[in-house]
Amino acid sequence: GENVEQHPSTLSVQEGDSAVIKCTYSDSASNYFPWYKQELGKRPQLIIDIRSNVGEKKDQRIAVTLNKTAKHFSLHITETQPEDSAVYFCAASWGSGGGADGLTFGKGTHLIIQP
Amino acid sequence: KAGVTQTPRYLIKTRGQQVTLSCSPISGHRSVSWYQQTPGQGLQFLFEYFSETQRNKGNFPGRFSGRQFSNSRSEMNVSTLELGDSALYLCASSLGLAGSPELFFGEGSRLTVL
């Protein structure tokens, strides 16, 4: 089955700086890569996703890049703000994109924004 | 519209007992998936149901089971509870159709096994 490795487990950055979280996956058939954000005590929510036919996707201060050859993808957050503090999960899926379809999550990165 | 609802939110059980958790998906969503969340282990996939059929299954022992009803509500059951089953159990619903992969999570059921 799919295996998703996520690094680092904890990341502390100064407010205003950039943060990068990296994930690798094992199954070359994976074609969908979402990122979920979970604030303390709240439910995970999708913040951005990318499909295997796209190399990069951006949405305001967040962006995701995908390298299919190396089987890794990254989340980039620029101009970090206090509300970015949360646990971020990457995931990979081999399915057609409907439902969970074999969605495998990484273990999460606790992002801490220092004032 | 209403979000994903999970009940109960908190429960305490003892080893050997069994537990049933419930999940009501967003109206119109036909896929319900379940995840176990523990510190340091992230979100581990248990199973997914679509139109009352189990469509995918993770690597959990047979003590973990689930089902989905015709109204898309889902239940998961854990029998013969072990201390290691203490976790936050999250369910997520989605349309379950190709091109609509976003998962909408509930707030979870926090299970403590003593």
Structural class computed from helices and strand pairing of chain A: mainly beta
Q: Number of helix segments of chain B?
A: 0
Helical amount of chain A:
under 10%
Compressed to H and E, one letter per element, the order of chain A equals EEEEEEEEEEE
| Largest beta-sheet characterization of chain A | 6 strands, mixed
> Mean of the pLDDT scores of chain A?
92
The assembly state of the depicted protein chains is heterodimer
Order of helices and strands of chain B: EEEEEEEEEEE
* Strand composition percent of chain A: over 45%
Low-confidence runs of chain B: none
User: Helix/strand-derived class of chain B?
Assistant: mainly beta
Overall pLDDT metric of chain B: 93
Counting DSSP H or I runs of 4 or more residues, the number of helices of chain A is 0
Overview of the structural elements:
Chain A is mainly β. Helices cover 0% and strands 53% of the residues of chain A. In chain A, strands 2, 4, 5, 9, 10 and 11 form a 6-stranded mixed β-sheet that branches. In chain A, 37% of the residues are buried. By secondary structure, chain B is mainly β. Chain B has strands spanning 5-7, 10-13, 19-24, 31-38, 42-50, 53-57, 64-68, 74-78, 87-94, 104-105, 109-113. In chain B, a hairpin with a 5-residue loop joins β7 and β8 (74-78). Chain B is globular, with a radius of gyration of 13 Å. The chains are: A mainly beta (115), B mainly beta (114). The A-B interface holds A 1, 6, 9, 32, 34, 36, 42-46, 49, 89, 91, 93, 95-108 and B 4, 31, 33, 35, 40-45, 48, 50, 55-56, 59, 90, 92, 94-103, 105-108.
